[in-house]
What does this fold into?
Amino acid sequence: MQRIGNGYVRWFNRSRKRDGSLYRGRFGGRRIDDGSYWLTVLRYIDLNAPRAGICALPSDHLYGSARAYRFGDGPSWLHREAVERAAAEGDPSALFRAPDYDAFASSCIPGSTLTWSSG
It folds into this structure.
């Protein structure tokens, strides 16, 4: 697959008189070293599917992590502690309430049209 991909990129670049990576500049990484940014990243990830119209709620998406947080399931390698602490709003005495996860994920959208039910 790598050989096919590399061949395609070389052909694409030659045919358009360009060079470099085909996806250069679009993606990048940034260290998460701020609590506010951490919450923003969590919500951004979980809201991708609802914003794309794939589902109504973050936890409705079969392949998203919000489902694991909402229903308490997921793969064995998924460590939920940090996200559950963030969803409990950093209050060490607060308990993470799985039914409220969709509300947490949606809480950053002013006037959000997402709806959820606790229960």
Q: What stands out?
A: The two ends are 46 Å apart (CA to CA). The chain has a mean pLDDT of 77. Residues 35-51 form the longest helix (17 residues).
